[in-house]
Specification:
Length: 314
């Protein structure tokens, strides 16, 4: 049974709990009391999960089978017509190719985060400052970051000024106006923002490795690369899997940065932006819901495939 004294309850509240528990659970076995207490603690979180996650998801699936403009009381049941329309019209899937830029950026993001986590786990001066610098972008609001980089990447903006000062003016580009470059720019902004999140997760996992193991490796004459390959990577494998799943799902469902910075213009449209525009700009809620369901299935399929791959690798 959970010892509520360890949860910080004052003694008088603990006595009230013990007296009430005796009346409520007196006739139940210890195992049943334990299960009942666990269920009571989980009741409120499960209620919130049901109300704010499961019910909206079920409603979205229902809307995907109807034709509705989002505000009218008239809703027409169309069955699978919305899904057929999506697969018949390839324009809806063209935006998915832009996810590849964020997909590659996600791998680069994980590499950078892991590299700095290994580097800053060692004893070095000023590492607390470097940790704060790396994690700070993740604390900023996505809207603020997008506006900062709009000014940073605009013509004659901060980046162009820096290149001109360094004598590299020939490399100045229309960073957000050239459809061949724009997705690289947006993916770079995304990497800059989220690398701190992966860095903190990696750093926490690396610091949980026993110091005795690392000392033994030093005594055996292992170099830094050998310690990373044979000790750190196997120890944080599950964290790598988690970050990889988050990176892939994030690449498929990217929305905030490209929507605010470009609105999906100049070839930067993503599947989520296409979905939002379909549902709210063009008032085709049913079609937009069907697109959201398809995206949900794609993310689920990729996640399951990745979990299967790592399971087989094990």
């Amino acid at each position: 049974m959970v010892n509520l004294m360890t949860l910080g309850l004052p003694p008088y509240l603990f006595k009230i709990w013990e007296k009430g528990r005796g009346k409520m659970f007196g006739k139940l076995s210890y195992k049943k009391q334990e299960k009942l207490v666990i269920f009571m603690f989980l009741l409120i979180p499960l209620l919130f999960l049901t109300v704010f996650t499961f019910m909206p998801a079920i409603s979205m699936i229902y809307y995907s089978f109807i034709e509705w403009n989002g505000y009218s009381i008239n809703k027409t049941w169309v069955g699978f017509n919305n899904y057929i329309e999506i697969f018949k019209n390839p324009i809806y899937f063209v935006a998915l190719k832009n996810s590849l830029y964020y997909f590659v950026g996600g791998f680069l993001q994980l590499f950078i985060a892991f590299y700095f986590a290994v580097l800053l786990n060692a004893k070095m001066k000023g590492k607390s400052l470097f940790k704060a610098i790396l994690f700070f972008p993740y604390l900023l609001n996505g809207v603020a970051i997008s506006l900062i980089f709009v000014f940073f990447l605009r013509p004659d903006g901060t980046l162009d000024s820096i290149l001109n000062i360094l004598g590299m003016g020939k490399y100045v580009q229309q960073w957000l106006g050239n459809e061949h470059i724009i997705n690289y720019s947006l993916a770079t902004v995304s990497v800059w923002r989220y690398v701190g999140f992966n860095f903190i997760i990696f750093l926490g996992a690396i610091q949980s490795i026993s110091g005795e193991v690392m000392e033994a490796a030093d005594l055996d004459g292992a170099n830094e690369w050998q310690k990373v390959k044979y000790i750190i990577l196997p120890s944080v494998k599950k964290i790598v899997e988690l970050n990889l799943i988050l990176a892939i799902s994030g690449a498929i469902s990217v929305f905030e940065i490209p929507y605010i910075m470009t609105g999906g213009a100049n070839g930067s449209n993503t599947f989520v932006i296409q979905t939002v525009n379909t549902a709210f700009k063009f008032q085709q809620v049913g079609l937009g819901s069907a697109m959201a369901v398809i995206m949900l299935l794609i993310v689920a399929a990729v996640t399951i495939a990745e979990k299967t791959f790592f399971k087989e690798a094990d």
